[in-house]
């Protein structure tokens, strides 16, 4: 009861300071809690250490007890550290297999999918979901399964952002969310939270925030639950109220040692929007530290897309403040220092300012290059994630159709028809289709690639696709190099060549290039992604 009481008391106090200085006090409290975060982390580590010790002392044949302890360790690590959470889900899977307990095997797979999803690993999450049969799950595990399905399709819709596929994924997400709501206990935290995620109006993407308000202001929540709901509710407000909710979410995340957090990232982003660059940079750095500690690649990419801009503005503001101080100092010295000494000081100070301006210019140039590379990487990943999901979906449908036809003909003992059915599979045609699709996606990103590539060669050595080709073998090898795949063995596996063939192709072209062989790959990497208008 006391664990639930303190977050509720904190909410009452936060309402009391809602006046003019309310957010300033919450800002001070957040910074104070950040200074104490090691205390909260040590508390969590002690709990984890106790569970690990209990697991070590557990009898070797008490598999069920070991499974329960690994499950508790997973729950502790789930929002704290990705790698450790992953390790204990693997142990749960092994223990459930050893017990021949299929429901526990499925439960372990679902929990593995939860942490894979938190790290942005869509394909791996889908693999976990495909291995689970929800029909034999207990109500709690089935609710987790449908909830994970809902989140998977929602995130997929956000990344795909295609008019047709994104809308389909959103419909799938809402379907599984309805199933999770039906399985949740009436009036429970989970049911109300799930209801909040159902749009209030048909076709609307935003959640129904009234349910979030009901949870935050009328229910007793844990610190972690308070942080989750406050961060979600903040998306429905602007100005001081949004900032107040984000402060509440970030403070509760720190107190519960949650590292897989978006609250402090959202807070830093909003502070940057209102011009508080110094605090925005401070909180963004903390968000990056959390993402690195947890091991979330998705959050690191999000933070990396905005942190360089904040850092550049912070440098400029700091330098402007220094310049103002110098001007003030020089103005004061005019009264007491002779004109010649003042002139000398001004000369020295201006010389220092020019050095600093050069440093700032160099830093800005570096940051601009980093931003361009991050933007290109994000665009490439976005295009190819959508490409691979579409390809996988096509092949799954083909395999499903082949399976149904094969089973039907097996039952009717039509063995010759089965052989004919397999004869319809043209591996070369499928591979050519895969390569052509890869080529089209690549040239969508790099429409000038072929021209830029041939500009590095003499006219007589240039390589152009034939009329029936998009890219040929030589161009496709260096297309993979431009995507960052430089290992000959990896390229050989993708294109189904021998390693020697890939090496020979690359060697021949580099020896004929107008640039040095060592500089050829660098010139390929300098070919830019063309941004869509």
TrEMBL record:
This protein's record includes keyword Cytoplasm: no
One Pfam family it belongs to: DUF6377
InterPro entries: DUF6377
Record keywords: Membrane, Signal, Transmembrane, Transmembrane helix
Domain DUF6377, residue spans: 253-492
TM stretches of this protein: 325-348
Coiled-coil boundaries: none
N-terminal signal peptide: 1-19
Top-level taxon of the source organism: Bacteria
Record's protein name: DUF6377 domain-containing protein
